[in-house]
């Protein structure tokens, strides 16, 4: 894991603060060294069952801590990794670390599913299946404890998307569609996609109590998903009101800063029981989903 550099280091400046703009070419060169120099690490954000309050999954979110530039958000470096092809080794690194961590959790009795985000370039690699199988083999993680998150706009070609999803299903990993509602996927194809879960994009959740249209969209996504026998996860829950609304409308799982920020593996383990108390303390009591 990257060394802790945040804090009192006066030379250290944050990429986000924009002091000294970084040349994209330099960023690209540095990114090329990030794996070997141990600058990448993963945060894990829990997914909570909104009925029981328990942690039922964790999403791995990549972080890059550059020794001079500080923490660079994935929204900044993932697009560069995609343009340069570095997403292939970086994506494989993330898969491997996430599976290794989850194997450790399994052995300690924390039976959780780890979700790893895939970029379109990874998804369209013919050897993606081989890569995933090799990682599962190497780490000893059972396939159903791994989930991949893909987005709606992974490929223009529906046929090859369905084929790849079928291959993934066959090796036993779970599949979820991330940022659902923001892409351009044709709803009519959804029933042909062998996926397990839809994740409602956080933009709908964020505006819930300001925009009645977003309430309608969320209710529609939940009922459509359930009719297709899919699980629904809401992303970006930041308030108690959003939590209660989603519980009331029988959303299965939730993720968001109100429940937990993305955390280092050890911190997540330490805070586990506190996190699992939040729904009980703030949500609708009882077993709505029964
Ligand atoms: P995503 O997969 O949709 O992940 C959710 C993002 O929302 C994460 O941002 C997370 O930290 C943030 N988030 C979670 N809860 C809340 C909340 O309550 N409020 C707000 N405002 N934000 C919340 P992050 O970690 O910056 O990641 C951004 C995106 O970068 C991810 O979106 C994903 O598309 C991509 N990404 C992250 N890790 C990887 C990776 O290993 N591989 C690939 N290909 N992409 C990754
Ligand atoms: Mg995701
Ligand atoms: Mg998302
Ligand atoms: Mg996103």
UniProtKB/TrEMBL annotation:
Domain EAL: 24-276
Highest taxon above the source species: Bacteria
Name of this chain's protein: histidine kinase
Organism expressing this protein natively: Peribacillus asahii
Source species taxonomy: Bacteria, Bacillati, Bacillota, Bacilli, Bacillales
Range covered out of full length: 270 to 559 of 1036
């Amino acid at each position: 894991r990257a060394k802790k550099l945040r804090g009192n280091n006066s030379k250290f400046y944050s990429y986000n603060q924009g002091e000294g703009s970084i040349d994209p070419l330099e960023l690209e060169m540095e990114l090329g060294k990030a794996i070997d120099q141990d600058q990448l690490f993963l945060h894990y954000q829990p997914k909570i069952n909104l009925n029981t309050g328990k942690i039922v999954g964790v999403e791995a979110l990549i972080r890059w801590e550059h020794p001079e530039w500080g923490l660079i958000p994935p929204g900044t470096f993932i697009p560069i990794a995609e343009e340069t092809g570095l997403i292939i080794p970086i994506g494989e690194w993330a898969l491997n670390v996430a599976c290794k961590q989850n194997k450790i959790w399994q052995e300690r009795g924390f039976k959780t599913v780890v979700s790893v985000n895939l970029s379109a370039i990874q998804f369209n690699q013919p050897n993606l299946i081989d890569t995933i199988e090799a990682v599962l083999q190497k780490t000893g993680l059972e396939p159903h404890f791994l989930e991949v998150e893909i987005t709606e706009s992974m490929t223009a070609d529906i046929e090859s998307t369905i084929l790849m999803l079928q291959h993934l299903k066959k090796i036993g990993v779970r599949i979820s569609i991330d940022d659902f509602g923001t892409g351009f996927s044709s709803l009519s194809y959804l029933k042909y996609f062998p996926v397990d879960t839809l994740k409602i994009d956080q933009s709908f959740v964020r505006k819930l109590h300001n925009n009645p249209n977003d309430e309608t969209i969320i209710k529609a996504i939940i009922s459509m998903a359930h009719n297709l026998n899919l699980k629904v996860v809401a992303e970006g829950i930041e308030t108690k009101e959003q939590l209660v609304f989603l519980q009331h409308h029988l959303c299965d799982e939730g993720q968001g800063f109100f429940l937990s920020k993305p955390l280092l593996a050890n911190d997540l383990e330490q805070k586990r029981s506190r996190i699992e108390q939040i729904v009980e303390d703030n949500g609708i009591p009882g077993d709505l989903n029964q």
